[in-house]
Amino acid sequence: MFILHRRLPLLARTTFICNSMEPAVTTTATTSSLGGSSRLAALAQQLRMYKPPPSSTFDEAEEMQADQESAGKVVSQVGFQESMTPVPKDPERFRPKRAAVLICIFEGEEGDLRVILTKRSSRLSTHSGEVSLPGGKAEEDDKDDGMTATREAEEEIGLDPSLVDVVTSLEPFLSKHLLRVIPVIGILRDKKTFNPKPNPAEVEAVFDAPLEMFLKDENRRSEEREWMGEKYLIHYFDYRTGDKDYTIWGLTAGILIRAASVTYQRPPAFIEQCPKFKYPKMVEKNTCMP
């Protein structure tokens, strides 16, 4: 985990410290009274205690001296916690729409933790054919982000919300066009109760992958790019299941790297190398950033 230990002055650069910690979840696979394995019960308890760091606060509406259009392109390719990105001069105009995605974790047959993913329909106008997490934009009737994520998952892949135990949310990420995406972590206690029914208008395929994969350097490649004189990496995870090959990258990969780091309580085995954004006047103590 990368922790910012002090408040930063206006437009200051940051230095991060990497703390390696042992996973807090056990590997026991006995049945618990709450349904599912005792490992899932322990994981749910662990994740409920997680509190995302506060978003950075702004004492004044000051321009961040960064090209917003260029920043938006970088955000759409990589995906960052909201606190890392520049904001326009007038914060009243910076009101990104809210969305939520579901990181649905379950225990595989071999005792590993796995996450449900989708391949978007090739007929969609945006991000067609790409791998994503189930989710979408919030609606007025949604009482919280958990409801948004589980409602969208039901609409996209037929996942009954009653089967998912929503345990926590991660820091907001910004995606293309500065859409504010809230990653919601839910536990699927019994995978056998879920029979995927993908909505053909939105989803081409439903599959799952080991969550720990997003902390490992195996089957990972990266592409170095440059923005405003700073180099950064876009991560790609290649994954094969059955006779299908998938590539998980960009915002989805960024969210899953963060989710895996929180779940296993350790940083990835590779350097993430995000762009060095210029920060707002005040950044709260202990703000987590990749």
Automatic annotation (TrEMBL):
<dbReference type="GO" id="GO:0005737">
    <property type="term" value="C:cytoplasm"/>
</dbReference>
<dbReference type="GO" id="GO:0006637">
    <property type="term" value="P:acyl-CoA metabolic process"/>
</dbReference>
<dbReference type="InterPro" id="IPR000086">
    <property type="entry name" value="NUDIX_hydrolase_dom"/>
</dbReference>
<dbReference type="InterPro" id="IPR045121">
    <property type="entry name" value="CoAse"/>
</dbReference>
<dbReference type="InterPro" id="IPR015797">
    <property type="entry name" value="NUDIX_hydrolase-like_dom_sf"/>
</dbReference>
<dbReference type="GO" id="GO:0008893">
    <property type="term" value="F:guanosine-3',5'-bis(diphosphate) 3'-diphosphatase activity"/>
</dbReference>
<feature type="region of interest" description="Disordered">
    <location>
        <begin position="126"/>
        <end position="148"/>
    </location>
</feature>
<dbReference type="Pfam" id="PF00293">
    <property type="entry name" value="NUDIX"/>
</dbReference>
<protein>
    <recommendedName>
        <fullName>Nudix hydrolase domain-containing protein</fullName>
    </recommendedName>
</protein>
<dbReference type="GO" id="GO:0010945">
    <property type="term" value="F:coenzyme A diphosphatase activity"/>
</dbReference>
<feature type="domain" description="Nudix hydrolase">
    <location>
        <begin position="96"/>
        <end position="252"/>
    </location>
</feature>
<keyword id="KW-0464">Manganese</keyword>
<keyword id="KW-0378">Hydrolase</keyword>
<dbReference type="GO" id="GO:0046872">
    <property type="term" value="F:metal ion binding"/>
</dbReference>
<keyword id="KW-0479">Metal-binding</keyword>
<dbReference type="GO" id="GO:0015937">
    <property type="term" value="P:coenzyme A biosynthetic process"/>
</dbReference>
<keyword id="KW-0460">Magnesium</keyword>
